[in-house]
Design brief:
about 350 residues, alpha/beta, five-stranded mixed sheet, six-stranded mixed sheet
């Protein structure tokens, strides 16, 4: 189904949800925004979703975006939990180790097709995590993944496994950090907003990031080589949540209307959007003369062998975190990836 077809379905759901909403008081939610002006995730997903929420509640629930981030980018979960803002987008991997059960959906080589990843993430969350109080301090409305990760460098050829030894690579999640370690490199865990300075100052040799984020944050000015890893290095999971007290000010009918245009609907829209953006970003890179190298099957097999311990480590971590059968969750996630592609 095309992005535009799904956009039509999205609009239909908005109208249906609006009809379902009963009389209720008006509520304005303060949204902490940290995405750059004009960034596609904000313009093509968050803003339409904000408009959809207002329309679904017939204007009773409005969302007011802050001119700049409240707190730090990495602290957005606590910003919402503590009521410093009512709502925000949180990259969960920016709080490494805090949400270990989510990390199973960020393991490498699962898929390099975003239309599969985000719907699978939401389905897995609903089935295995929604009732486990994974996010006890906030009210989750949507969970999806960004574009899939590949690796970009200042010139180092990381299409060859042996060249990872000693490389200083920016990472943004526990999974990516461990991949770099297992490959013999040195991980530098930093938000994408800091990568430009790190790369321009030669503090890092490269960075793991989705292709669209590379262009969105103008990182192509300092990172000129892309290594496309078949199946990808994984993806990072994004949570959009609301402060519980702010959510409690919204009527039950409007809460239901909001949920109808959130969750799985946003995950599908995100998947379509990020797939389109990834393809467009790679085409733009090639047009600008960037080197784009696809890792060979032989080198990919070597890489998979090197990072194989990562899955076993997550399974053990998930058991420690209280998930009785993490392999069941992982199998379900992988089956959803395949189902989403059909």
């Amino acid at each position: 189904m095309s992005f535009f077809h799904r956009a039509g379905i999205f609009a239909g759901l908005v109208l249906a949800a609006g009809v379902a909403a009963a009389q209720a008081q008006e509520v304005t939610l303060r949204y902490s925004n940290w995405l750059p002006a004009g960034y596609t995730l904000d313009v093509a997903l968050m803003e339409p979703w904000i408009a959809a929420i207002e329309q679904a509640t017939e204007g009773r629930v409005k969302i007011q975006k802050s001119p700049k981030v409240v707190g730090s980018v990495a602290s957005q979960y606590d910003v919402v939990a503590d009521g410093m803002a009512d709502m925000s987008l949180m990259v969960l991997s920016y709080a490494p180790g805090r949400f270990p059960l989510v990390e199973g959906m960020e393991l490498p080589f699962a898929s390099d097709d975003e239309t599969r990843t985000s719907p699978a993430v939401w389905a897995t969350y609903e089935k295995f995590l929604a009732d486990r109080d994974v996010f006890p301090d906030v009210v989750p409305l949507a969970m999806f993944q960004t574009g899939v990760f590949h690796v970009f460098t200042t010139g180092r050829d990381l299409a060859l496994v042996d060249n990872w030894a000693g490389a200083k690579i920016r990472t943004s999640s526990p999974s990516l950090t461990r991949i770099v370690e297992l490959m013999g490199g040195t991980p530098i865990n930093k938000p994408v907003s800091e990568v430009y300075e790190l790369a321009s100052g030669r503090v890092i040799d490269g960075a793991t990031t989705p292709p669209d984020a590379l262009l969105g944050f103008k990182l192509d000015e300092v990172l000129n080589t892309m290594i496309f890893v078949p199946g990808s290095l994984g993806s990072t999971t994004v949570l959009v949540s609301v402060n519980p007290d702010a959510w409690g000010r919204i009527s039950e009918a409007d809460q239901q209307a909001i949920r109808k245009v959130s969750g799985a609907v946003v995950a599908r829209m995100s998947g379509d959007l990020h797939r389109k953006e990834t393809e467009a970003a790679i085409a733009k890179m090639q047009a600008k003369g960037m080197t784009v190298t696809r890792m060979s099957d032989a080198e990919l097999a070597r890489m998979q062998e090197r990072v194989a311990p990562l899955t076993a480590e997550w399974l053990e971590k998930a058991k420690t975190a209280g998930l009785e059968n993490p392999q069941e969750m992982l199998d379900f996630f992988r089956s959803e990836l395949n189902r989403a592609a059909q």
